[in-house]
Amino acid sequence: MFAIFSLYIFIYISFRFFKKMESVIPLIIFTLLASCFIDVLYFFELGIWWYNTILCFVSGMWYSRYKKEIDCVVQKNDIAYCRTLLCSIFIFAVLYYGHLKYSPQIMIFTAPIFALIIIFLSMKVKFRSKLLSFLGDHVFSIYILQRLAFLILKDKTTNQYLYFLSSLLLTIIISLLFDKVFNTIERSLRKRNIYRE
């Protein structure tokens, strides 16, 4: 949660104060801020779980910016697609091996590569599932609120499987309540704005 909120602050700074510049400049500023943030967390010897997915956010921003161009290159033909996918899997395997054998910090690079592999696979394979659709509708609240469930159930059981399942269920329940309250507030605010106009 700390990382995600910090990244939102960096986004605000980058696009608020540099919005009049060329469109790619705010992204560069954001990337530099996020990289410095990782360095600071690493310098203070905080656990890697504080920053191991930050580059996923950064790479997602860049992918969003150049999505049409990237998709055009990757899906140009089957050979280009297979080459890109296999290269991504190879890079992931090398980095993952390095993460296990040499340094946990390498994990910050494996996470965005893995995310790209999922994106590339989804270009050819359609994941049609009501469960995945449901989780996708609530992915933000699940992501930021999962820690609450972990803390609430931390000392309630020593069985790791029961802990995982109960944490997952509690996270979904909390997320649904959060989204319901948030959506209610949002609708109320929109109605007020409409009446004022």
Can you give a write-up of this model?
There is one protein chain. Helix content is 80%, strand content 0%. The mean pLDDT is 85. It has 197 residues and is an all-alpha fold. It is globular. 12% of the residues are buried.
Can you tag this structure with a few keywords?
mainly alpha; 80% helix; 9 helices; 197 residues; globular
Q: Strand content of the residues, in percent?
A: under 5%
The helix/strand series, from N terminus to C terminus, equals HHHHHHHHH
How many strands?
0
Main sheet properties: none
Oligomer: single chain
Rounded to the nearest angstrom, the radius of gyration is 20 Å
> What is the end-to-end distance?
36 Å
Rough outline: globular
The unreliable regions are none
* Class of secondary structure makeup: mainly alpha
How many DSSP helices?
A: 9
What is the overall pLDDT average? 85
Helix content: over 70%
Fold topology:
Elements: H1 2-17, H2 24-43, H3 54-65, H4 67-74, H5 78-101, H6 107-124, H7 130-137, H8 139-153, H9 160-196
Helix pairs in contact: 1-2, 2-3, 3-6, 5-6, 8-9
Task: Please provide a brief summary of the model.
With 197 residues, this protein is mainly alpha-helical. The protein has helices at 2-17, 24-43, 54-65, 67-74, 78-101, 107-124, 130-137, 139-153, 160-196. The longest helix is centred in the C-terminal third of the chain and has 37 residues, at 160-196.
